[in-house]
Amino acid sequence: MLDTVLLIVFSMVGLSLMLNLWRLIIGPSVPDRILALDTMYINVIALIILYSISMGTGMYFEAALLIAMLGFISTVAVCKYLLRGDIIE
Amino acid sequence: MISEWIVSILLLLGGLFILIGSIGLIKLPDFFMRLHGPTKATTLGMASVLTAAMVFFANSASGLSVKEILITTFLLITAPISAYMLIKTAIHHKLKAKDGTKGLDNIEKD
Amino acid sequence: MRLEARFRWLPTPFRSLFLFIVWLLLNNSVSVGHIILGALLALLIPLFSMSFRDPQPLILKPGLAFKQLLIVLYDIIVANLQVALLIMGPSKNLRPGFVKVPIDLMHEMPITILASCVSLTPGTVSAEVYPLIKSLNNDDNPTQRYLLIHVLDLDDEQALIERIKVRYEAPLKEIFQC
Question: Which of A8, C30, C139, C141 is 20 to 30 A (C-alpha) from B70?
């Protein structure tokens, strides 16, 4: 049963990634695109966790943690750049 | 057997919330409203997927792993901060809000 | 409100405890070596990073803080169900709006926690703190501060302000005693 559920959830997360990509392409403004990227990295974390469940190993959690940290830092850095024209004042 | 049911239900709930967050990102009319989808629905979706992973690994051969708690806490702490930065950027760029938005004069000029 | 900790060598007790727990969670073990190393790091990192930070009020009521954490977690789950229903419904029925909430808190740390709580709970995202000044820690000019929030479906403005003040701000004032 778990395999079927995993397949369904994989396709749900994949569909949301496609929707995020659509928002990333059509914009219309720069903050919209940043928001789409921000959502995309969270969905990628979900994808990694699902993959590690289907493989049955806990090796992938470090990767998920790193993506969470880098995604947050990059969102804040891009926002800071748009706000001030500089990242570190 | 019971744990498999719990994992399945949590995974389905999580996938549903993540999908709803992304649908909100597509469907809502202006930026300020679109911000609500990812900050709330996606965060709860992640929390339930991670809880499912924790229950799954607690019952498998590799034993209990607690790193999921760390990822969940990190996402819960950082989601409001990135939402705050994004909405600050949007106000700075003077993005148009949807017609009929109440209280637009509450925004002060910077 | 108290800015200084009881012991000089332990400037931020709860942050040290948090660092210690995070270290154990990262290593996924409770062996003696990791406990000693984690305790050392939890003592040394706050000491070295003290000089980069402004002094912030300390948590004086840990029990109440824990209870408030549970309340906020419960609200997050309820908020998500509500927002999910709002998003899936027809989007022309939504009545978005900006609301200015007057706040009595004075320091950066409590205001940050309040803004995060507001962002994570029903249909609201905090946008800005007014007036825009460099430091919030100046006690000599205590002007009234406002939190600008964006609401997805605004029904009754006064009820929303009342709800935020009673449910999230009053416990924070109690926890930090300010």
Answer: A8
Model confidence, pTM: 0.86
B100 pLDDT higher than 80:
no
The one-character DSSP state at B102 is: B
Residues 52-111 of C with CB under 8 A from B: 76-77, 79-80, 83-84, 87-88, 91, 94-100
Contacts of B110 in chain C (CB under 8 A): 132
Interatomic CA distance for residues B83 and C164, integer angstroms: 19
Distance from CA of B30 to the nearest CA of C (A): 10
- Whole-number pLDDT of residue C91: 73
Q: Is there a single domain that holds both residue C147 and residue C88?
A: yes
Rg of chain C on CA atoms, in Å: 19
A89 inside domain: no
Residue C34, domain extent? 13-52
Number of domains in chain C: 2
User: Would you say residue C6 lies in a domain?
Assistant: no
Pull the structure tokens for residue A57.
């190993």
Fold entry, domain B2-97: Helix Hairpins (1.10.287)
- Measured between alpha carbons, how far is C114 from C103 in angstroms, rounded to an integer? 10
Closest chain B residue to the Cα of A25, Cα to Cα: B26
Q: So what's the ipTM on this one?
A: 0.86
- Residue C24, φ and ψ in degrees, nearest 5: -65, -40
Across A71-75, B40-44, C118-122, the highest mean pLDDT is recorded for: A71-75
Closest CA to C165 of C58, C83, C157, B82: C157
Q: For residue C134, what pLDDT is reported? A: 54
Q: At residue C145, what are phi and psi to the nearest 5 degrees? A: -105, 150
Asked whether the predicted pLDDT for residue A76 surpasses 80, the reply is yes
What's the pLDDT at A7? 92
Using CB atoms, pick whichever of A38, A46, A64 lies closest to residue B38: A38
Interface test with B, best of C119, C130, C161 (most B CBs within 10 A): C119
Q: Tell me if A11 is assigned to some domain.
A: yes
